[in-house]
Prior knowledge:
Blueprint: E1 4-9, H1 11-16, E2 17-27, H2 31-38, E3 42-43, E4 48-52, E5 55-59, E6 62-63, E7 80-83, H3 86-96, E8 101-111, E9 114-124, H4 127-152
Antiparallel strand pairs: 1-8, 2-7, 2-9, 3-6, 4-5, 5-7, 8-9
Amino acid sequence: MPEQLTIATNRRARHEYFIEDRIEAGIALKGTEVKSLRQHKVSLVEGYARVDGREVWLHDVHIAPYEQGGRWNVDPGRPRKLLLHKREILRLRQRTEQKGYTLIPLRMYFKGGYAKVELGLCRGKRQYDKRRAIAERDERRDMERELRERTRE
């Protein structure tokens, strides 16, 4: 199994969305973009993916221009084509047409020398869902702290 080198993660996605499914996709990149990815100069926070016809496009993912790229640098915010099988694209189109579902990039990584993105089929959280998740996390942390203190004694 090829080693995975994580480039960037979208930590905000876990707070903003319920992640119901995960899909791995390749990314069609230009030469200097790959060099920027190797320097970890990418932001997934505002990103999303959209199914257009028989293609899937990644929007609003910022890959910083490569410093030594010169005239070969491309627009850092351009839409990038995602590489998926036809069956996967059809399934994603059906799932995203349901109300409230969207495709969010969760993680970008290199696998066997190829740049990949992990997409999450997500449903947005409401404000009360976010508060409940924070309360549960705090409660878990307090319980773990109590157990640690009891085992020390």
